[in-house]
Amino acid sequence: MIGTVVENIKLNDKYYYMIINNKEFVEKAKVGQFLMVQSKEYDYINDPILRRPFGICDVDYDSGDFSILYMIVGKGTMLLSTFKKGSKIEFSPPLGNSFTIQSKKNVALVGGGIGIAPLYFLAKTLKDNNCKITLYFGGQSEIDIVFLDKFEKVVDEIVVTTNDGSKGMKGLVTDPFIKNIDHYDYVYTCGPKKMLEAVSRICIDSGRAVEVSLDERMACGLGACLGCIVYVKDDDGNEIQKRCCVEGPIFDGSKVIWESVCRG
Amino acid sequence: MIGTVVENIKLNDKYYYMIINNKEFVEKAKVGQFLMVQSKEYDYINDPILRRPFGICDVDYDSGDFSILYMIVGKGTMLLSTFKKGSKIEFSPPLGNSFTIQSKKNVALVGGGIGIAPLYFLAKTLKDNNCKITLYFGGQSEIDIVFLDKFEKVVDEIVVTTNDGSKGMKGLVTDPFIKNIDHYDYVYTCGPKKMLEAVSRICIDSGRAVEVSLDERMACGLGACLGCIVYVKDDDGNEIQKRCCVEGPIFDGSKVIWESVCRG
Amino acid sequence: MSESLKINLCGVEFKNPIITASGTFGYGLEYANHIDLNKLGGISVKGISLKEVKGNPMPRIMETSAGMLNAIGLQNVGVERFIKEKLPALRKYDTKIIVNFWGKMLEEYIEVARVLDEEDVDMLEMNISCPNIKEGGIAFGTDPKMTYEVVYNCKKVMKNKPLVVKLSPNVTNIKVFGKVAEEAGADAISAINTLLGMAININTRKPFLSNITGGLSGPAIKPVAIRMVYELYKTIKIPIIGIGGIMSYRDVIEFYLAGASAVQVGTANFVDPEIPIKIIDELNNYLKCNNIRNISELTGKVEI
Amino acid sequence: MSESLKINLCGVEFKNPIITASGTFGYGLEYANHIDLNKLGGISVKGISLKEVKGNPMPRIMETSAGMLNAIGLQNVGVERFIKEKLPALRKYDTKIIVNFWGKMLEEYIEVARVLDEEDVDMLEMNISCPNIKEGGIAFGTDPKMTYEVVYNCKKVMKNKPLVVKLSPNVTNIKVFGKVAEEAGADAISAINTLLGMAININTRKPFLSNITGGLSGPAIKPVAIRMVYELYKTIKIPIIGIGGIMSYRDVIEFYLAGASAVQVGTANFVDPEIPIKIIDELNNYLKCNNIRNISELTGKVEI
Ligand SMILES: Cc1cc2nc3c(=O)[nH]c(=O)nc-3n(C[C@H](O)[C@H](O)[C@H](O)COP(=O)(O)OP(=O)(O)OC[C@H]3O[C@@H](n4cnc5c(N)ncnc54)[C@H](O)[C@@H]3O)c2cc1C
Ligand SMILES: Cc1cc2nc3c(=O)[nH]c(=O)nc-3n(C[C@H](O)[C@H](O)[C@H](O)COP(=O)(O)OP(=O)(O)OC[C@H]3O[C@@H](n4cnc5c(N)ncnc54)[C@H](O)[C@@H]3O)c2cc1C
Ligand SMILES: Cc1cc2nc3c(=O)[nH]c(=O)nc-3n(C[C@H](O)[C@H](O)[C@H](O)COP(=O)(O)O)c2cc1C
Ligand SMILES: Cc1cc2nc3c(=O)[nH]c(=O)nc-3n(C[C@H](O)[C@H](O)[C@H](O)COP(=O)(O)O)c2cc1C
Ligand code: FES
Ligand code: FES
């Protein structure tokens, strides 16, 4: 698919927010899905070569806009940050499975750093479904706490933590979360592997359902290359392979075999 | 060296004109020299990889601006055409030898297509040296005849030819040139190999000195890789090797062994 | 459908010479919702073995300059499930099906070839880049004697289908392997498979791939692939399917000039699943503009 | 000058491990007006032969995706003129001089080695990627017996200088060649030379290089180079100079982790002559930030 860059906003030195217009994409997009974005503007250039996966951060059904929130990591995201308003950009349709949407429940969203990205679309959808939402948002430092103003309008409560205490409480996001776990019926989480694993264990221990969104390196995004395998337990407890791009990126946190997950 | 793009003007679908600011470069630039330009904006991208050679088209000692006139050929020039005003651009210092500047002579400049580029800087310099200048400018078609308004202010006479007759006389640029060869003391030429060879033969036959500017594929531009060899006859008539980037790009047209020249 | 792209490869009629490369196109079906499979000349499916294989631990892929490394570990559902679960759905599309296959021992190669030869597929493509566990891990594709053995013995049990042998580029002299495969009865050669490479994450100090090394593919390797197709064309008489870094119709023409009679598009499918279709359209256009009646006229037409 | 980059390679003290690669840096002097040669760890000069060589007809170079092909044809002024015309000027700079050399026959290799061993140079680097005209064009670097012969015989006549043997990557098993060179007396290995490639101009239908094929270099080949350095490090005890696609200090670290004790920067010199100097500065900084006392601590430290 091809879209037009509506905005490509630098939030700070580490994070950017890109709004893209494409009606067809927006009509198909489901909450929790991702897309593969071509980060080079010219197809006659072969470096970088693969598309990059990003979670859908927000969609606007009226305007046909959708957005990604991204962190500068390497050459793909550096290039993305150079896209100017009005440029054309290439990407896949919405890919992967989606979050299960609860209604009228007390839910917790636990986001670590850039893991916050798909949680915004989720929060909006849950709000529409009359959930009471608490956002736990952890980062390394102040710079990682972005998008708070947007979340404030959607969620009922926000708890911020940073490792260095430069914003919110000092510590890990799981510290306040574990204390309040009893308040929630359902938990959704996205972020670094260590955090997802910790959140999942907390949920398992207290009998809460938890959905995690996983990042695996991807080449095709379509289930063809088998580059993005995640090992999970099936209902009988057997270890089985799932493709993060097709059967994921959303998994039941209690089923994931965490040692097999390689992306941070 | 690093400069700032002052302008990057699309002249038509095939030709662009880029003005770059760098005082140090301009101070060093000699007429007939070229530079190696990095056509990608980000050094973390490895395709395209090599710099591209372009003739110095014009310099402005006051402002510290210089310019290149370029034709879209492949990925390097396509990328160059996307540079925006104000962007940084990387390039080598002025490289190669330079044209011999005549004073108070009747001179002819013979340019074919993009070969016109270095002839503008040359024409300005010759005019400052009180030469009477005729420009012969040949192209495939109307689209190839660019920069005429600029030349009009500098040269005394312009003869335009196109292969298809869409602008100027129909035919080869050598047709009118051969008729008038007796008027000139000195000839300078740049363009496709076939034209350079023809112009050189005409000059040899009528005993005129001729300087040609040659394009060879280049990797280093500094005389190190030996990728740009041109075979010429030395004073004793022996075939010797010259590096187009160091001992060229300007050669005595009567000495070049034309079969050895591979670039069109 | 255009006449100018129709080709006949070992008796099989392809509507065009654009085949998606094994391992980059799954079992074909994964792409069915994204592009029109009916437009493709053919599909070479993920390498099939006798039994299901789970592949390597993660991570399995990494990008490099103008290329990528993969060490999927030949994960596949095994020949039986392939025939039962994948083939019927795939056969509904109007495109040729090439089954890429491999084994850990000679006997496995022979058995898979025997089984597939009886099935409703168009061609078999033997991948000899995999290490032979019986012979201590030396790949079938890097020892000419082993190449001969495996090709000869598979061909012996195949009564119906043409056999394409896919060569490894990780050899000193590709011509030797082309020649040996031809002598052993191969109907065509496909070249090249991936170059063996490695990349290390300097932050973690670990290799990017769990398998340590992996196969390098993409435009980075195209010059090596073109050279090998050229060398093979001068050496053997059977047709060559050119593979390696194809991104556009220009690359296809380049492979044809070097000596190819068809091509496979691999990594490009990840870059944009539309690329094979775009290539077909652009090739059509190119041939028309250049008054070339059939693309086969270009095979080996590099002017030396 | 920083202690953290100082290395000792076969008894020669380098102020840093960044050496410019043979053929990409001329005789060094070409770059003297463009960068400060005194900052470089060393310079490996263009491959020298017994007699002057004029090289291949044009065209000799072509760009490819993230790389380039070259078929310069080993043009050089010959050992005598090199010593007379180039070496004295080059020696004025405070950097180590490695003389890359080659021959068309065993006897030429030996003769050049003998001559250079007596000169004021720091190391010899034997290029064995060139075809041996006596043995019908088989490269010295693709037949282990020939590799042994040429290394052993050159080493025999060398009394003073360390001998680096530069391996060709166009072989099935690089470990065999590293082992053989080591056994024959090589003091170090450098790897890799260029991969054999080819590119065709689809408009003219001619190869882009007059020589038809050429050597592929640049970031495109880095994964192959890293893999080979890693394989060599596991196989031999003598130090390895890593080469292939180095563009930044990160690539240098990657080569070190794979097993390199020094590196050479080649194609990058064309991209920007400042790159080797930038790399040195950035390495310094990297080592400081990571509390690494000397870069040698990183050799072979990839975590498997
Ligand atoms: C399903 C999914 C959703 C994602 N959503 C977001 C998001 O909303 N916002 C965001 O900033 N990032 C997201 N990521 C991570 C994002 O894809 C990477 O940060 C990005 O690909 C880095 O590319 P690069 O070229 O800048 O980095 P490089 O390190 O240069 O990339 C090299 C290769 O590694 C891959 N890679 C690098 N980091 C990651 C990673 N963390 N996960 C997967 N692949 C990686 C790249 O895709 C590329 O193929 C998501 C990843 C996945 C799989
Ligand atoms: C001394 C000199 C002066 C030049 N001056 C000008 C000028 O003023 N204006 C202008 O438009 N062009 C000029 N050229 C030609 C210009 O360098 C090429 O058109 C340009 O490099 C094409 O790059 P590309 O990536 O668009 O094409 P591609 O074909 O994709 O380039 C591939 C490779 O081939 C080389 N190449 C392609 N065409 C040429 C060519 N004609 N000459 C040399 N190398 C080539 C490129 O540099 C690159 O390394 C000059 C060349 C030389 C040697
Ligand atoms: C992820 C991936 C998986 C692959 N799996 C196979 C395979 O199972 N069998 C095989 O013969 N080749 C396999 N290959 C090699 C490709 O079919 C092809 O030969 C190679 O990628 C070069 O082509 P390309 O540069 O167009 O990708 C695989 C390549 C990739 C990138
Ligand atoms: C133009 C050119 C000329 C070369 N000439 C030589 C040579 O004379 N001797 C040699 O051993 N290697 C030669 N090489 C190979 C390089 O020294 C180096 O091994 C190779 O380019 C890989 O490194 P890179 O990717 O950093 O360029 C040459 C490479 C290039 C690009
Ligand atoms: S990314 Fe290819 S299978 Fe998931
Ligand atoms: S371009 Fe390298 S010697 Fe001329």
TrEMBL record, chains A, B:
Pfam families: DHODB_Fe-S_bind, NAD_binding_1. It comes from Calditerrivibrio nitroreducens (strain DSM 19672 / NBRC 101217 / Yu37-1). Binds 1 [2Fe-2S] cluster per subunit. This is Dihydroorotate oxidase B, electron transfer subunit. InterPro entries: Cyt_c3_hydrogenase_gsu, Dihydroorotate_DH_ele_sf, Dihydroorotate_DH_Fe-S-bd, FAD-bd_FR_type, FNR_nucleotide-bd, OxRdtase_FAD/NAD-bd, PyrK_electron_transfer, Riboflavin_synthase-like_b-brl. Residues 1-101 form the FAD-binding FR-type domain. FAD binds at residues 76-77. Its cofactor is [2Fe-2S] cluster; FAD. It is an enzyme of class 1 (oxidoreductase). One of its GO terms (biological process) is pyrimidine nucleotide biosynthetic process. The keyword Transmembrane helix does not apply. [2Fe-2S] cluster binds at residues 220, 225, 228, 245. GO terms for molecular function: 2 iron, 2 sulfur cluster binding; dihydroorotate dehydrogenase (fumarate) activity; flavin adenine dinucleotide binding; metal ion binding. Belongs to the PyrK family. Keywords: 2Fe-2S, Electron transport, FAD, Flavoprotein, Iron, Iron-sulfur, Metal-binding, Oxidoreductase, Transport. The keyword Zinc-finger does not apply. Its EC number is 1.3.98.1.
TrEMBL record, chains C, D:
The active site is at residue 130. Pathway: Pyrimidine metabolism; UMP biosynthesis via de novo pathway. Substrate binds at residues 46, 70-74, 127, 193-194. Its cofactor is FMN. It catalyses: (S)-dihydroorotate + A = orotate + AH2. Binds 1 FMN per subunit. InterPro entries: Aldolase_TIM, DHO_dehydrogenase, DHOD_1B, Dihydroorotate_DH_1, Dihydroorotate_DH_1_2, Dihydroorotate_DH_cat, Dihydroorotate_DH_CS, Dihydroorotate_DH_I. It comes from the Bacteria. Transmembrane segments: none annotated. GO terms for molecular function: dihydroorotate dehydrogenase activity. This is Dihydroorotate dehydrogenase. It comes from Calditerrivibrio nitroreducens (strain DSM 19672 / NBRC 101217 / Yu37-1). The gene is pyrD.
